[in-house]
Design goal:
Blueprint (H helix, E strand, L loop, with lengths): L2 H14 L8 H5 L7 E5 L6 H17 L3 E5 L6 H9 L6 E6 L1 H8 L11 E8 L3 E6 L7 H11 L4 E4 L5 H13 L4 E4 L3 H9 L5 E5 H10 L2 E6 L28 E6 L4 H16 L1 H8 L13 H22 L5
Parallel strand pairs: 1-2, 1-3, 6-7, 6-8
Antiparallel strand pairs: 3-10, 4-10, 5-8, 5-9
Helix pairs in contact: 3-10, 5-12
This protein binds aspartic acid.
Aspartic acid binds next to helix 3, helix 7, helix 8 and strand 8.
Length: 331
């Protein structure tokens, strides 16, 4: 055996015992997934996207037989986390659960380092999540029409929180302010998880956030709920009127969530991820946990990669017009 053959033989022996990372010829053939998957949530822990991401991740982990580890990368309306996803290896071991902000980012951020459509593979849409208008528990305002009157009177002296420019809480507040002719002062967070803690602590006046984060707090009385952003009232919060009923005709926002991966997944990996997502959306445990938060998973036809891609394309255009009209910009 010459020196080269000897080196190859010992390297192969080391690879077989796992001593040479990336030199295990067997790993190339290993079926996906053969190691844990990182699920990036581009918002702080404890918020609505984090909650949905963890529920879906848990179920997919059971289906795929591998751990799904959530990593929270909040900031700049989710664009920091999504930039990380766009630049990750397209091998299925990095995915993201994010929301409607994927469609608003191109109109808001001039220096976005990725293309929201071309730099991602769509795995599937998860749910359309209702939002609620809420305030700190001691705001002396009794109902939604009174809250709107209060906003008009207070203007910049009223404070509201959002999870960064382009986030669902920001969009909802932007629409609300433009519909009521008000201009409140914003307080920015890396996600509405930490914002909710501060709302409970009465650090600012109000917020518009997904039912995922607000339902339990409204019920516990740690914050006040005024209205929902859906066209119909919600079963889980039946006392809250729609904003339409409260006087803002036609007001509607749903913070839809979806799963993406970096562009260029091998077809079999993409198919496995989508199948595991579909299984999660039919998983009774997931359905029950989501229902307790006012959320219903989308139907299977809306959860396909193709349906998500066309939904995103439509949303990018729709929000582009709204954002241009509102003159909003990212930081
Ligand atoms: N609910 C946040 C938003 O307003 C994001 C989050 O923390 O999940 O977009």
């Amino acid at each position: 055996m010459n020196a080269r053959q000897l080196l190859l033989k010992s390297l192969l022996a080391m690879a077989a015992t796992g001593l040479v990372a990336g030199f295990n010829p067997a790993s190339a053939q290993q079926p996906f997934p053969s190691r844990p998957i990182t699920l990036i949530v581009p918002a702080a822990a404890g918020g609505p996207t984090d909650a949905v991401g963890r529920m879906i991740g848990d179920s997919m982990s059971t289906t795929l037989g591998q751990q799904v580890i959530v990593e929270n990368i909040g900031g700049a309306g989710g664009t920091i986390g999504m930039a990380r996803v766009a630049k990750s290896a397209a091998d299925g071991y990095t995915v993201a659960v994010w929301h409607i902000a994927q469609s608003t980012a191109p109109s808001l951020y001039d220096n976005l380092r990725y293309n929201v459509i071309d730099d991602f593979d769509s795995i599937g849409r998860i749910a359309d999540v209702p939002m609620t208008l809420v305030s700190k528990s001691d705001l002396a305002v009794k109902d939604a029409p009174a809250l709107i009157a209060w906003m008009k009177e207070k203007q910049g002296a009223a404070t509201y929180a959002h999870a960064g420019i382009g986030s669902a809480s920001h969009l909802c507040a932007l629409l609300l302010m433009s519909a009521t002719g008000t201009k409140m002062t914003a307080v920015s967070y890396r996600g509405t998880g930490p914002a909710m803690n501060d709302l409970i602590g009465k650090q600012f006046d109000m917020m518009c956030d997904q039912t995922t984060g607000t339902t339990a707090q409204i019920k516990a009385g740690t914050i006040k709920g005024y209205a929902v952003t859906t066209p119909k009232r919600l079963k889980i919060l039946p006392d809250l009127p729609t904003l339409d009923e409260a006087g803002i005709k036609g007001f509607e926002v749903a913070a839809w969530h979806a799963m993406w991966a970096p562009k260029g997944l091998p077809a079999d990996v993409a198919a496995k991820l989508n199948a595991a997502l579909l299984t999660a959306l039919k998983d009774q445990k997931v359905i029950d946990r989501l229902a307790a938060l006012g959320i219903e998973p989308v139907s299977a036809d809306k959860a396909t990669p193709e349906a998500l891609k066309s939904h995103l394309t439509i949303e990018v255009e729709k929000w582009g017009k709204v954002i241009k009209a509102a003159g909003a910009k990212g930081e």
